[in-house]
Design goal:
The protein has 285 residues and is mainly beta. It has three helices and 23 strands. The strands form six sheets. Strands 3, 6, 7, 8, 9, 10, 11, 14, 15, 16, 17, 18 and 19 form a 13-stranded mixed sheet that branches.
């Protein structure tokens, strides 16, 4: 932002340039803020800087958090690999939590990719790529997802929405609504061992809104669950307790909810019964 005093009018003019990277920003690198990541065969711990164009990964025991040059937060689950180039994160395998930056001018729209999808994130999203399945859950704010090969085909996700599809998919399925409270309680990329996410208050507001809708009967609990970072589904009694973590650190199942008549998530997803919904526990510790 540049501030200039007009000699003609004596008015203070504030000139703001949008969509451009300032020279100071161009020199900033990513910074590891929690855990450790590996890049080009070297290990980087909290306080270490990383090149803006690099592939980073975590091992099977330790998650990590990286502060992007834009101010966005990227949390990586265990055994996760992602590539960062020009402020864009591309998830190859594993689970990440991506939260876009906030400033005096509002939220910044961040770009990322996972599996067959491109994502424009104006909020916080949880993304898992496991085998042939890509799963995206919007925790707060919104996210627009597009199939890379068919960019004209897109879908906007709101808080609580999840889509799950195969990595060879050419269509984006109808999103289902999941239980945000349970997901955030059992997910390994929120809460301990990390500090509080800067957007955590927004996530809590989204949870409160969903809980009110469930109390009014607009959303109904479901017995369908999706466990861990993959696309495995199961049907049983609607879970009410905390999820369990498996050996890979994936969280257990959480109850879900849905508005309307439910539907099929398609592309490797599960099917929700009328008035019920698909549930999810997507995070990886």
């Amino acid at each position: 932002m540049m501030i200039r005093l007009s000699p003609l009018s004596g008015l203070l003019l504030i000139c703001v340039t949008f969509g451009m990277i300032r020279p100071a920003d161009a020199k900033r690198n990513m910074t590891v803020t929690f855990g450790s990541v590996t890049s080009d065969g070297s290990s980087f711990r909290p306080g270490a800087g990383l090149s803006r164009a690099t592939a980073i990964s975590t091992d099977a025991t330790t998650p990590a958090e990286v502060l992007m040059p834009t101010g966005a937060t990227l949390r990586l689950g265990r055994a996760t690999t992602a590539s960062i180039y020009d402020d864009t994160a591309d998830v190859f395998v594993g689970t990440v939590l991506f939260s876009s930056a906030s400033g005096i001018l509002g939220r910044r729209v961040e770009a990322m990719a996972a599996g067959p999808l491109e994502i424009s994130c104006n909020g916080s999203v949880l993304v898992s790529v496991n085998g042939n399945t890509t799963k995206i859950t919007c925790l707060e704010g919104s996210a627009v997802v597009r199939v890379r090969e068919r960019r004209r085909h897109f879908l906007e996700l709101e808080a609580g929405n999840m889509v799950m599809l195969g990595n060879d998919a050419v269509e984006i399925p109808v999103p289902v609504e999941i239980d945000l409270e349970r997901l955030t309680r059992t997910g390994g990329l929120l809460g301990s061992p990390f500090g509080e996410l800067r957007t955590e208050q927004r996530i809590r507001k989204a949870i409160d809104k969903q809980q009110r809708a469930m109390a009014k009967g607009k959303l109904l609990a479901s017995s369908v669950t999706v466990s861990g970072s993959g696309g495995e589904t199961s049907v049983g009694d609607s879970p009410s307790g905390g999820g369990q973590s498996d050996s890979a650190g994936n969280s257990g199942s959480s109850s879900g909810s849905s508005s309307g008549g439910g539907g099929s998530s398609g592309g490797g997803g599960g099917v929700a019964s009328t008035g019920g919904s698909l549930s999810s526990a997507t995070a990886c510790a």
